[in-house]
Amino acid sequence: MDTSLLLLLATGAVVGAASGYLGSFMVLRRMSLVGDALSHVALPGMAIALALGFDPLAGALLALTLAVIGIWYLGERSEIYPEALVGVFFTASLAIGILVTPEPELLETLFGDLDRIGYWDGLVTMILALVVFVVARRISSKLLLGVISEDLASSTGANISSVNFVYLLLVGVVVALGVKFVGTLLMGALVIVPAVAAKNAAKSINLYYIMAASIGILSVLLGISIARMFSVPSGPAVVLVSIMFFVLSYILKARK
Amino acid sequence: MERGDILSVSQLKVSFDDHVILDGISFSVRRDGTFAVIGPNGAGKTVMFRAILGLIPFEGEVEWAADLRIGYVPQKLFVAKDIPLTVSEFLHLKENDPHQIATGLTSVGLGESESSDSHRGRRLLGTRLGALSGGELQRVLIAFALLGKPNVLLFDEPTSGIDISGEETVYSLINKLKKEKDLTIIFISHELEVVFQYADTVLCLNKEQVCYGPPRKVIDKASLDALYGKDAQVYRHTSDRGHHHHGH
């Protein structure tokens, strides 16, 4: 096995772990579709960065940060989550992204392209994903308590508004990182599906986190291997592997 | 704020959009006291709790003592059945020290040392939060509130009908806790009987302040009419049980 493939797999594994772990909160918060919609925002950001000659990762990060600030603001302002508005805004950004993205790059930005991940790319991605993971771990207690009851969390002195903001920022970063592996159309699935599968099987919250992160890792590793072996786009391969884990977990749950 | 008080509220007003929920509420809570808030449904009791906890915006002044440590027991907690969070993990969200958790559990009758209930306690620790019965969840929420050694406990409408531990009701548990620790209790209730039995001060709310003071002094025909309307059923109901606590 050559070193570049090894680096690719290692980077993918760290991104998969961070996605699965962050997704486990998103699923509990019943915000799954927001995670999915958020991933579409990366597209116009990448397109504009490509057109201006910047690194698409920087464009994706910028676009996602802006979107996260928007989501957070709406969530703070309104008692009811304005999900319809989020749906409208994000499908619009997907449509704009498809129009703006140069034709040769369109397919790979939509579905991921492993060949475009270089040595430095991989290293930066891995470090950022590790940072995301560590920060998420640190805020996890407050975050989860906020999911159970915001009042209860606030009564313990936690600033839930800023915890939520940091969490959404982390999701934005992980989506930007994962877009290279699975593309903007399917990145939402890498955040959500491992957590949904883990929720079917886990008996405790710690097991749930561990399973979500592990399924994230395995999906990326197996998906990348399959994509390499059969020369197919990595995005669909990774996501279909995670869906396979979901089906397995569902069957196991139903048999109990 | 006067010496010996732990909370002082002055001219509290809460409104959502243009709708005034509470207005002109002023009272203070004595340290180590037991303070009851009563009023009919929709009187704004929970809203007042959320305001003094700083969870919602308000006008007026809410001043807590500097050494305040709050434990809050909400009225309801809707935990989805499918959230894989066990009771033990829930308590660990607030406190890492296993010794403190054990102490909190013992206080609500779920401790390891209590022979009659320890088995039930251990089983509960591994149970999902969403699968608990109403009484069990209330116990766990009280244990959660007791973590971090609070000096004020806020109870939103503890249900006295629920058995906390064998014959213990939530109110006798509150009484027990007060004897053990330096603790101020503020609770919402609609049961006059309970207010007379346990509270040293009562605040009657019906969007505005109807009465405030020692229960036996301030709960009378006039304040009950203002709270529940004329011929209040709730009043006669408590009298029928032989508790002639009313002061006239």
Description:
The complex is a heterodimer of chains A (256) and B (248). Chain A is mainly α. Chain A has one domain: ABC transporter involved in vitamin B12 uptake, BtuC (Orthogonal Bundle), CATH 1.10.3470. Chain A is built from 10 helices and no strands. Chain A has helices at residues 3-28, 32-52, 56-77, 83-100, 103-111, 119-148, 150-155, 160-201, 205-230, 234-255. Chain A is globular and about 50 Å long. The N and C termini of chain A lie far apart (41 Å). Chain B is α/β, with parallel strands linked by helices. Chain B has a domain at 80-185: P-loop containing nucleotide triphosphate hydrolases (Rossmann fold), CATH 3.40.50. In chain B, the strands form 3 sheets. A 6-stranded mixed sheet of chain B has the order 5-6-9-3-10-11, with helices on both faces. In chain B, a hairpin with a 2-residue loop joins strand 7 (163-165) and strand 8 (168-169). Classes of the chains: A mainly alpha (256), B alpha/beta (248). Chains A and B meet through helix 6, helix 7 and helix 9 of A and strand 5 and helix 2 of B. Chain B: This is ABC transporter domain-containing protein. Chain B: Residues 7-232 form the ABC transporter domain.
What attributes characterize this protein structure?
A: about 260 residues, mainly alpha, ABC transporter involved in vitamin B12 uptake, BtuC, 10 helices, B: about 250 residues, alpha/beta, Rossmann fold, 6-stranded mixed sheet, 3-stranded antiparallel sheet, AAA+_ATPase (chain B)
Task: Summarize, please.
With 256 residues, chain A is mainly alpha-helical.
Produce the secondary structure layout.
The complex is a heterodimer of chains A (256) and B (248).
Chain A: H1 3-28, H2 32-52, H3 56-77, H4 83-100, H5 103-111, H6 119-148, H7 150-155, H8 160-201, H9 205-230, H10 234-255
Helix pairs in contact in A: 1-6, 1-8, 1-9, 2-3, 2-4, 2-8, 3-8, 5-8, 6-8, 8-9, 8-10, 9-10
Chain B: E1 5-16, E2 19-30, E3 34-38, H1 45-52, E4 59-64, E5 70-73, H2 87-92, H3 98-107, H4 118-125, H5 134-146, E6 152-155, E7 163-165, E8 168-169, H6 170-180, E9 184-189, H7 192-198, E10 201-206, E11 208-213, H8 215-218, H9 221-228, H10 233-240
Parallel strand pairs in B: 3-9, 3-10, 5-6, 6-9
Antiparallel strand pairs in B: 1-2, 1-4, 7-8, 10-11
